[in-house]
Amino acid sequence: MTGTGVVPRRSLASLAAARLEKTVSADAVRHNLAVLRAAAGGRRIMPVLKGDAYGLGAPALADLLVAAGVPALAVDTVAEGAVLREHGIGVPILVMDVDVADNAEDCARYRLMPAVAGPEQVGRHSAVARRRGEPVTAWLRTNVGFNRFGPREERDVDAVLDGLHRARAAVRVAGVFAHLSSSATDPGETAEQAEVFRARVGRARAVLGGHLTASLAATHGLLHPAALRGTDWVRPGLGLHGLLLPGSRDLPGWAGSGLGRLRPAVAVRARVLDLLTVTRAEGLGYDRSAAVAPGRRLATVAIGFSRGLTGPAPAFTGLLRGRSCPMVGRPGMDCAQFDVTAVPDARPGDWMTLLGPERTGDGAARGGGGPVRTAADVGAELGLTLYELLAALRMPVRLEGATPAAQGDDESAAPP
């Protein structure tokens, strides 16, 4: 024997990340946060980290955002809020969806702020508060046309407000919020919904007190002065990652918003596992339904339908050594095949870029304005919205450059 060295054990996450990964640029997220703050015109920012921050790693992003001075965060479910609390996040956290009654006790235990949209929800959180002997802080979720939670008729809104007034010793309402249905596409409808929201906030303040804050705009709401008027908070999600729905650039508020300075923060890449030169006309994969001509060179790449690459998607492509390579046939569980005939120097172990700018072998982005797989293009190829795209590509996430000094500002001490 010439040596007794022991190979260090690698983490399970690193085993998966050696094949494929999502990266999120912390520098881009910080930049985007600054852009969103400027567009918000002095309103406080409550970043939305629902769905594990759209599949981008909510705990790590929460650390980054809290270090940058955000005063509160928002999630969809009690479970998502509990994950952040267990991770050590201490800022107020709004649970935007009306969660099930079974989770009300844990909502209070983790000091989360539940959304209430009806008398039954007021009752469940009031009962928890009385059992625990301490009040619950909640937000009123009102329905101005999104029509997912809460009443539309004014008499039913009054019933919710009456219930909150009677339960005010147990349920303390911090604010009122709503979702816009068409802020990326329809300024007229957005203005109408904003008018309904302002009226609801006025009625809530008349019943519950003038201390109530208000939040209507998310990222695309920043393009509508009507959605910002009279509000105190903005709840950006997609914008933190530099992404906007295509129609947003056609809205009247685009020119003065500054949102054109947002930077894409997310990239996805996967390894080439093997290469095959087709020598005769035949099919490939389980059903062999994809015909491949002789002489074509195929790369088997480490991403499949278990990671969100659904198919068939004949228009889907990846970048390899600066060339666009189309997917061939249907993806398998953990791999798919791409035609790399135009890349004669392709080798096993190469990284194929599926989203974002192509990188060199050492991981740096290629300079000179090289090819980029934009989120809009990838989403269109897969038939997914930008929201769906980020969450659908399920794979290890690496947050790059997340170790700067905290960038606090006057928001850091502001309670919701």
TrEMBL record:
Cofactors required: pyridoxal 5'-phosphate
Protein's UniProt keywords contain Isomerase: yes
Membrane-spanning ranges: none
Enzyme class: isomerase
Matching SUPFAM superfamilies: Alanine racemase C-terminal domain-like, PLP-binding barrel
GO molecular function, one term: alanine racemase activity
Protein name (database record): Alanine racemase
